Amino acid sequence: MSLAASRAVLRQSTFAVRRAGIRNASTTAEATNAAKDTASKAQSKASEGLTKVTSSASSVASSAGSAVNNASQQATGRVGRMVNFVQGLVPKATYYGRVGLELGKLIAHQRSMQPPSVQTMQNYIQPALNAIRNPSTLFNRVASEANSAAQSPANVLQQVRNMPREQWYSMGVVVAEVIGFFSVGEIIGRFKLVGYRTKSDDHH
């Protein structure tokens, strides 16, 4: 092969390699752009799917909540009335609970109330623990106090008469609380405010 022919073949092969590189470069750029487009389309489809799932989940949750609410409203009989009654009491109980908490804070602040110290708690707990460990001393003490009260009833009456007014008030509050809790328990047990249910009440 002549020198001119070999140069022509070499030029042709170099030109072919350059053209292939240019083609590869253009196809690589095109492939990159195509991959970017595909990725952006997939991302947009995924975000659309996520939006649809979120909206459907919220609609399902709201429909489930409305179904529960409708079921509780459609419940009949004693259970339905009880559910509706309790649902009506929740806001009132929350409100009055907060009012009671604030009132308790005001009373504690006004009367300078504070939790007892550790020493005071130990002074009250230690005799109770001793009485639990040795109950015979507790029984002996109660018996001796009962005997002394029985021997001198005038002394007991004098102690009652000499009680301060604040102690009478606190005793009245405790008695009112006991009567109130007993009355509420009776109302709950009877399912009625006044009196007891009879057979004739069920027919009305």
TrEMBL record:
One of its GO biological process terms is: proton motive force-driven ATP synthesis
Query: Which Pfam families has this protein been placed in?
Result: ATP-synt_G
Q: Where found?
A: Mitochondrion membrane
| A Gene Ontology molecular function term of the record | proton transmembrane transporter activity
- Which terms are listed as keywords in the entry? ATP synthesis, CF(0), Hydrogen ion transport, Ion transport, Membrane, Mitochondrion, Transport
Ion transport recorded as keyword: yes
Coiled-coil-forming residues are: none
CC annotations in GO: mitochondrial membrane; proton-transporting ATP synthase complex
Question: Where does this chain mainly localize?
Answer: mitochondrion
Q: Where is this region: Disordered?
A: 28-52
Q: Which family does it belong to?
A: Belongs to the ATPase g subunit family.
Identification of the protein by name: Mitochondrial F1F0-ATP synthase g subunit
Native organism: Pyrenophora teres f. teres (strain 0-1) (Barley net blotch fungus)
